[in-house]
Specification:
With 182 residues, the chain is of the alpha+beta class. The chain is 17% helix and 40% strand. Strands 1, 2, 3, 4, 5, 6, 7, 8 and 9 form a 9-stranded antiparallel beta sheet that branches. It starts with 6 loop residues before the first helix and ends with a strand.
């Protein structure tokens, strides 16, 4: 049976894709993170750093001064949206974000490549107005680094197939996968 015609296999394939994306370092690791801001929903791209199906966590990082941090502190509900073109599979993982910083984030900091550490620090802080495209300086600041774990409560999966799309929803509270109309 094809994986997209079996709800449990669809969930398994979705987690396989997320784990592989975190490990392979390709563009598939980039996901849209949606949070709730003061003016409503906000989405931005983050790089998936780790995925652990057993722990139900998807991990990414952020500059503490970025807008997503106070948004997640005010309301930890968030969603990551992935597109896996080789599988023609959309995966939306919803859950609650846990922000780790300081010593709690040290292990994650050590795993960030040196070139990527420039994304955590600099002047002015991320998202602030500047006078031109190069009117900022970047340098790593360890104290501006946060590791974020999304504890996944639900996975909404859509397999786009020529013979008909398939959609299913897994919920942690029931542990079951249910078919939905695509």
């Amino acid at each position: 049976m094809d994986w997209w015609n079996d709800a449990d296999a669809l969930l398994e394939r979705s987690w396989e894709c997320m784990v592989r994306a975190a490990e392979d370092g390709t563009a598939h690791r980039f996901a849209a993170l949606a949070t709730i801001g003061a003016e409503g929903p906000e989405a931005r791209t983050v790089a998936l750093r780790a995925a652990d199906r057993k722990a139900r966590t998807l991990s990414f990082t952020a500059d503490i001064l970025s807008r997503k941090i106070p948004q997640l502190r005010a309301d930890p509900r968030a969603e990551l949206l992935f597109w896996f073109p080789d599988e023609t599979l959309q995966v939306r993982a919803r859950g609650r974000a846990l922000i780790r910083e300081g010593p709690e984030a040290e292990h994650a900091w050590r795993r960030v490549p040196n070139a990527s550490r420039l994304n955590f620090g600099g002047h002015p802080a991320t998202g602030r107005a500047i006078s031109g495209p190069d009117a900022f300086s970047k340098f790593p600041e360890r104290d501006r680094f946060a590791a974020i774990d999304l504890l996944v409560d639900a996975v909404d999966m859509v397999a786009l197939r020529a013979d008909g799309h398939r959609r299913a929803l897994w919920r942690a509270d029931s542990g079951r996968v249910a078919w939905l109309a695509p």
